[in-house]
Design goal:
Elements: H1 2-37, H2 42-48, H3 53-77, H4 81-103, H5 105-112, H6 121-148, H7 150-157
């Protein structure tokens, strides 16, 4: 039963990373192109050499994170408790980041509006909000399964070596 939940978590991780990448490509590309047309962010395009820089960076960055995550899930499926703890730490950091980002969104928009460099901060914060919600859903579920599901926890602690006692 616990193994099925862990495999399910891995499949959901792949779906989460694909959804996050698609959102970043679609919304990020639109922001880049609109900003480029308005005369902003041309420094970014010049630096990377193409208006496709943002989608390529989103694919590469999320691809690396996907591969690292799959390595962690490999060890998680082998019942390595360190992988469980590491994923819980990453999960809690992502949940705290998402909640704080959603709570302070209006303050961030007001602060960033002072920087006039041709970037639509409201759309960037909208992109951040969408990816935060995706992350909150996935990482929240991961925390529930890995930390609060008794069967999963017992399955990890059942693989610990027995202590030898002298009689």
């Amino acid at each position: 039963m616990a193994m099925n939940k862990l495999s399910h978590l891995r499949a959901l991780f792949v779906l989460y990373m694909l959804a996050k990448t698609i959102v970043e490509i679609v919304l990020g590309s639109g922001i880049c192109l609109d900003s480029l047309e308005a005369g902003g962010m041309s420094w970014l395009i010049r630096f990377f050499g193409s208006h496709l820089a943002i989608p390529i960076l989103a694919i590469l960055g999320n691809g690396v994170l996907l591969l690292l995550g799959l390595v962690l899930f490999h060890f998680l499926l082998e019942k390595r408790n360190w992988a469980r703890i590491f994923l819980l730490i990453v999960g809690w950091i992502n949940v705290i980041d998402a909640v704080s980002g959603l709570m302070f969104h209006t303050e961030a928009a007001r602060f960033l509006s002072y920087f006039k460099i041709g970037i639509d901060w409201d759309r960037i914060l909208y992109l951040d909000r969408v990816t935060d919600i995706l992350g909150l859903i996935y990482w929240g579920y991961l925390i529930i399964v890995l930390q609060f599901n008794d069967k999963v926890r017992k399955d990890f602690f059942a693989t610990l070596p027995e202590t030898v006692t002298d009689q």
